[in-house]
TrEMBL record:
Classification via InterPro entries: NFACT_RNA-bd, RQC_Subunit_NEMF
Keywords: Coiled coil
Gene Ontology CC entries for this record: RQC complex
Statement: the UniProt record of this protein carries the keyword Repressor: no
One of the GO biological process terms: rescue of stalled ribosome
Taxonomic source organism: Melioribacter roseus (strain DSM 23840 / JCM 17771 / VKM B-2668 / P3M-2)
Protein name in the entry: RNA-binding protein snRNP
Residue ranges that the Swiss-Prot or TrEMBL entry lists as coiled coil: 95-122, 174-211
All copies of domain NFACT RNA-binding, residue ranges: 240-342
Domain of life: Bacteria
Length: 363
């Protein structure tokens, strides 16, 4: 029986296996003859990455089995051959996934660490608010700064927004203090959570450099949730532009009128924030709030508003007004065209149209 007859009889011997035999100068007929008259083993070679199927006296990494007939040996070889191929493919997939996640997490950790090392400006902003309150009689609309003495008698220059009233300038600094406190605490919390995940992933990365069984690899795959993530992405991936602000807040952007309706009317939840550039056409933008009780920092709202302005006809303006409200205050009245909605309540932010720093593009 020649090589062609043997491979024709055993359909499981594919082109790759035949190539391996030829590259190693192995004649199948000669190999089978050896098997008939010598001890037959199926084993992994010294590297542990390839299988040996022949009478063999050299060093092996692991003997899978010894057999009395070539039929039994062939069955064992084929079974382990395809299992080993699965191991190679799965190992490569896991290594690629882990490397990508480690790179992504490392960048986020560096950004968060930099933010934490700068410290919180909560006290500074609160102090400005208190000083302005103490000097409210000296404030008037149109001023862009004021000189005041702090509790130690030192002169302090405080910037003002000339468009705002004295009380609103005071409120602005107290709001900044509140947002700074929330943002700083969230940065520390997120850093600790992410560092823990990073350390676990680093251990898995080191583990993947060792020889693992298919079962061990499948356990790691399950631990990483790769299959589940891929299935969920295929089934429920929203067809919108997707950004992540400050490594935490998910923002979704409509692509056209019908997509805007899909985003606002079906995808957005009642307590999500909704944004749209004022008085011009543009994309609907939704900031997801998974926990309605959590206060979203003003800085995050402004970044989401900047994205809304960027995806609008006001994109080239220096500054643009953006309406924002909770999704529950956004309604579509009967007869409205696709993408058109009405707001029951709204607030306005004046922002620069851009994809601001701290925004990661997902899709």
């Amino acid at each position: 029986m020649n090589n062609e007859e043997l491979t024709s009889r055993y359909k499981f011997i594919d082109r790759k296996m035949k190539t391996e035999f030829l590259e190693n100068g192995v004649e199948l007929k000669s190999l089978i003859t050896d098997i008939l008259f010598n001890e037959i083993i199926v084993a992994k070679d010294k590297s542990g990455a390839s299988l040996i199927f022949q009478p063999y006296t050299g060093e092996v990494a692991e003997i899978i089995g010894k057999y009395d007939s070539y039929q039994e040996a062939m069955n064992a070889y084929l079974s382990n051959y395809y299992s080993l191929s699965k191991e190679k493919v799965l190992t490569a997939t896991l290594k690629k996934h882990v490397a990508g996640e480690l790179e992504r997490m490392s960048a986020k950790l560096n950004n968060l660490k930099s933010r934490i090392e700068k410290g919180s400006r909560e006290k500074e902003y609160a102090n400005y608010g208190n000083l302005l309150l103490m000097n409210i009689s000296a404030l008037k609309k149109g001023l862009d700064k004021i000189e005041a003495k702090d509790m130690e008698g030192n002169n302090v220059t405080i910037k003002l927004d000339p468009k705002l009233s004295p009380q609103k300038n005071i409120d602005r600094y107290f709001e900044k203090a509140k947002s700074e406190k929330i943002e700083y605490e969230k940065s520390i919390e997120l850093y600790n959570e992410l560092k823990n995940k990073y350390d676990i992933l680093k251990e898995l990365d080191e583990k993947l450099n060792k020889e693992l069984t298919l079962e061990e690899l499948q356990t790691i795959e399950k631990q990483l949730g790769i299959k589940k993530k891929m299935e969920m992405q295929d089934k429920s991936r929203p067809n919108f532009r997707h950004f992540i602000i400050d490594g935490k807040y998910n923002v979704y952007v409509g692509k056209d009128s019908k997509n805007n309706d899909e985003l606002t009317l079906r995808f957005a939840k009642q307590n999500d924030y909704w944004f749209h550039a004022r008085s011009v056409s543009g994309s609907h933008v939704v900031l997801r709030t998974d926990n309605p009780k959590e206060v979203v920092p003003k800085s995050v709202l402004k970044k989401a508003a900047s994205i809304a302005a960027f995806y609008s006809k006001a994109k080239t303006a220096g500054l643009a007004p953006v309406s924002y409200t909770f999704k529950k205050y956004v309604v579509k009245k009967k007869g409205m065209e696709p993408g058109k909605v009405a707001l029951l309540k709204e607030e306005v932010l004046l922002v620069k149209p851009e994809i601001p720093p701290g925004c990661e593009v997902v899709d």
